[in-house]
Design a protein that fits this description.
Blueprint: E1 2-3, H1 8-22, E2 42-47, E3 53-61, E4 66-74, H2 83-97, E5 102-108, H3 112-117, E6 121-129, E7 133-141
Parallel strand pairs: 4-5
Antiparallel strand pairs: 1-2, 2-3, 3-4, 5-7, 6-7
Bound molecules: coenzyme A.
């Protein structure tokens, strides 16, 4: 099931997964997985049958017709089982309902084939995270 976290325990698990997958492997400090404006954005968590959060993603509305997907992460042992794909499809459906026509994102190089498979087009290299993780701007018309 995909939905937003709804209580303190779920929010902690949500950010913990983000941290474990996207920050801890690069020795980044706790807290670096969050931005000051989390409350402004839409949050999606994939819950398994035991009600554990095993996938997360954030949808940021940029303007009336554009949104950005950020902080996509699936628990390492659960990767390559279709959970990321489910999350992206769910966020795209939500975005469409809000009148969004295009989603952009900055993909890590390792995740490029994942997003390409889901219909995202590669635009150009964007920023270098932690001095080593090259990101690439991608977009999809939905
Ligand atoms: C990238 C990530 C979110 C993808 O989620 P996932 O649940 O592992 O991916 P899925 O199982 O849903 O994959 C969907 C499709 O993409 C393909 N795919 C995924 N990663 C791939 C890769 N590295 N190379 C080729 N194909 C890939 C899958 O084979 C699958 O294809 P299918 O539909 O034909 O079976 C997840 O692996 C992850 O959290 N990785 C580490 C953190 C990260 O890089 N996050 C993205 C930051 S931009």
């Amino acid at each position: 099931m995909i939905r937003s976290p709804q209580n303190e325990t779920e929010w902690q698990a949500y950010y913990a997964l983000r941290y474990e997958v996207l920050r801890a492997p690069w020795g980044q400090a706790k807290g670096s997985e969050q931005t000051p404006d989390e409350a402004l954005h839409q949050h999606f968590a994939f819950f398994n049958d035991d009600n554990q959060i095993i996938g997360v993603g954030r949808l940021d509305q940029i303007d009336a017709h554009n949104a950005q997907i950020r902080f996509m992460a699936v628990d390492a042992p659960q990767q390559s089982k279709g959970i990321g794909k489910c999350l992206i499809h769910f966020m795209e459906t939500e975005a469409k309902q809000k009148g969004i026509q295009q989603i952009i994102l900055h993909a890590r190089e390792v995740a490029l084939p994942f997003y390409q498979k889901l219909g995202y087009h590669l635009d150009n290299p964007s920023h270098l995270l932690f001095g080593e993780i090259q990101h690439f701007l991608m977009h999809k018309l939905i």
